[in-house]
Each structure stands twice: as structure tokens, then as C-alpha cells.
Design the sequence.
């Protein structure tokens, strides 16, 4: 597994981090962590795809992000010794594997190797970049642009380099990911259908022309 967030570390330092982590496997539908649980470990996604779900003010739940191989969650648990709680529930959408590094193991690693500090900086920098991009998107981009961008990201997450990609999400789930309503997202999708960019099916969206979306 190629870990982009470990790219700044040399081979030896990368090995120390990975050896300190424990590999855990999950079946489809398993809950890795629950919103509100104590946050005491970092998880590196090695295989499979995960949904990030949060509670809404009206008591419902919404999917706000999807994670795939190379992604991570739980980095705030490594910052210091203060008790923290999970800000979201993470659910396996398919069989998945994660490398888990506990906060205690990280503190021990940090005391002995400077590579741990570099990892923490890489984790936080990556999260800040992601949140900044999402804030700009929510503030300045139209719904059409948000749908196009998310579909392009989902095609990368679920597909190979070429050919149609089946994204096993409902229109409701896509609406949650882009911060829109299902009817408004459906209008955008119908326009993409007329352009031959996507096809719609029960519980899935098939991206036919991936190259069109970034344009």
C-alpha cells in the first residue's frame, strides 16, 4: 500500500510507523467507530471504502464523506493527552482493512523518533488542506460544480483508469455529500444524463464520461 501521507518520511521512518500500527479487518456494514466515542487512535485505510456519517440537528444522519485506500481518520487523538471524542461515525461500505495506531503507542513512538512528529504534521496539513478546499467549494461553487466535482472524485475512488465506473450510491447519498437536496441534485444528474456523462440506476450512478466532469 502506497501511503501519500507518509511520503515525507524516509524508508526507515515509514517502517517504524507501520510496524507500530495494528491491522484490523471489517465486514460490510461494520461500524469502525461511533460518533461520541472516546477518540484514542489513528486509522489508516488500507483497503475498502468507508462512509463518514454525522448526526444532524433534527436527529437524522448524513453522509458527509467517503474514504478509500490511502485516506485516514482519527488524527486529532494524537495531538495531546486531552480526552477527545469521535466527531463522526465511520461505517464500512464493503470489506475493509485499516492500520490502527493508538494514541498511547504514538506517544511512545514520538518520544523515541522524530518521524512521529513529521507524521503528525503531515496528517494535520492534509486535513487543513481538505477542509479549506471544502469551505471554498461550499462558499463559492454552484451546486452543478459541486456535483460534477464529487462525481469525479467518486469515479476515482471506485474505478480504474479507463471505462465506465459504477458508483454504488443513491441520489440521496450524493445529495448529502454535496450539501444539496435530492430534487435539486436530480436536476443536475438529469442534465448529465442528457449529455451522456452518467447513467442512473437503482441505488447506483454510472459515470460514463469521466473526462467531461473536470471541464
Sequence:
Amino acid at each position: 500500500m502506497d501511503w501519500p501521507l507518509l511520503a515525507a518520511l524516509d524508508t526507515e521512518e515509514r517502517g517504524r510507523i507501520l510496524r507500530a500500527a495494528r491491522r484490523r479487518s471489517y465486514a460490510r456494514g461494520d461500524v469502525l467507530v461511533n460518533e461520541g466515542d472516546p477518540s484514542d487512535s489513528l486509522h489508516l485505510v488500507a483497503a475498502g471504502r468507508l462512509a463518514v456519517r454525522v448526526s444532524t440537528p433534527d436527529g437524522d444522519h448524513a453522509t458527509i464523506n467517503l474514504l478509500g485506500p490511502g485516506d485516514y481518520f482519527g488524527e486529532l487523538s494524537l495531538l495531546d493527552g486531552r480526552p477527545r471524542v469521535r466527531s463522526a461515525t465511520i461505517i464500512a461500505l464493503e470489506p475493509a482493512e485499516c492500520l490502527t495506531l493508538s494514541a498511547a503507542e504514538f506517544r511512545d513512538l514520538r518520544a523515541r523518533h522524530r518521524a512521529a512528529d513529521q507524521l503528525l504534521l503531515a496528517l494535520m496539513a492534509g486535513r487543513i488542506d481538505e477542509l479549506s478546499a471544502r469551505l471554498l467549494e461550499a462558499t463559492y461553487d454552484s451546486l452543478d460544480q459541486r456535483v460534477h466535482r464529487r462525481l469525479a472524485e467518486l469515479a476515482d475512488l471506485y474505478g480504474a483508469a479507463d471505462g465506465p465506473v459504477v458508483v454504488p450510491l443513491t441520489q440521496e447519498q450524493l445529495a448529502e455529500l454535496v450539501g444539496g437536496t435530492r430534487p435539486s441534485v436530480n436536476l443536475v444528474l438529469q442534465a448529465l444524463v442528457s449529455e451522456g456523462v452518467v447513467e442512473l440506476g437503482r441505488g447506483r450512478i454510472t459515470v460514463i464520461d469521466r473526462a467531461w466532469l473536470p471541464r
